[in-house]
Amino acid sequence: MLDLPNCPKCYSKYTYEDGNLLICPECGYEWTLAVETENKEEQKTVKDANGNVLNEGDSITVIKDLKVKGTSSVIKIGTKVKNIRLVDGDHDIDCKIDGFGAMKLKSEFVKKG
């Protein structure tokens, strides 16, 4: 038997299938399973160096001295960064670092917290 997802609107576990629609009997919300799988594929998970999942707005700590390209500056190990944004690409974290300004970082060089 197919394990149906909870309702995305009210999180009820009593959803049922009617043709190609999934229906919530508690709030009346209707959606297709194709939309549910597309949303899961769109959400790329970004993990830090320890394997913890990073989310928008998290605080991170740099775990390695990072040279800033085009300058002689270095972002020191232990530098704390608040309120990160996740972006697509090789450098998957967009943030502002005190004393450096806007910066993009690779998630493999940071840890959550």
TrEMBL record:
InterPro entries: YjdM, YjdM_C, YjdM_N. Pfam families: YjdM, Zn_Ribbon_YjdM. Residues 46-112 form the Protein YjdM C-terminal domain. SUPFAM superfamilies: Prokaryotic SH3-related domain (SSF82057), Zinc beta-ribbon (SSF57783). Residues 4-32 form the Protein YjdM N-terminal domain. Belongs to the YjdM family. NCBIfam families: phnA. This is Zinc ribbon domain-containing protein YjdM. It comes from Halalkalibacter kiskunsagensis. The lineage of its organism: Bacteria, Bacillati, Bacillota, Bacilli, Bacillales.
